[in-house]
Amino acid sequence: MSDLRAIYNYIRRYLFFLLALYVLAWGFTDHRQIFGGLILGTALSMFNLWLMVRKTYQLGDAAVKGRKVYSLGTFSRMAAAVLAVIIAMEYPNHFHFISVILGLMTSYIVIMIYFFKQLLLPK
């Protein structure tokens, strides 16, 4: 499971880097709605990633101890995505809807980039 922790830390580091870029762009450009949506979506995407890693560890621990796990937190991750969409729809002056959706997909895009990097550039 230490490999999962290393992958999680790598992805989290790049998501924080992207968030920092989004915050700088939000502060220094006139596209506040777009970058506000990206910030909201990416922040909830990071939460979903953390939740998925936590549930994966719980699943591994339960498998070692012979217990059952009933959920991997799919409902919680979907609820967080719905929350982001509701916030974007409630405050359209602050958050661009499509940017929120793209932000929610950011962690998955970073995971795919990490996968292709490992596939093409093995250690």
Automatic annotation (TrEMBL):
Membrane topology: Multi-pass membrane protein
Coiled coil regions in record: none
GO CC term (a single one): plasma membrane
Native organism taxonomy: Bacteria, Bacillati, Bacillota, Bacilli, Bacillales
Location in or out of the cell: Cell membrane
InterPro entries (alphabetical): ATP_synth_I (IPR005598), ATP_synth_I_Bacilli (IPR039072)
Keyword hit for Cell membrane: yes
Pfam families in the record: ATP-synt_I (PF03899)
Keywords linked to the UniProt accession: Cell membrane, Membrane, Transmembrane, Transmembrane helix
Protein name: ATP synthase subunit I
Organism for this UniProt entry: Neobacillus notoginsengisoli
Transmembrane segments: 12-28, 34-53, 69-89, 95-116
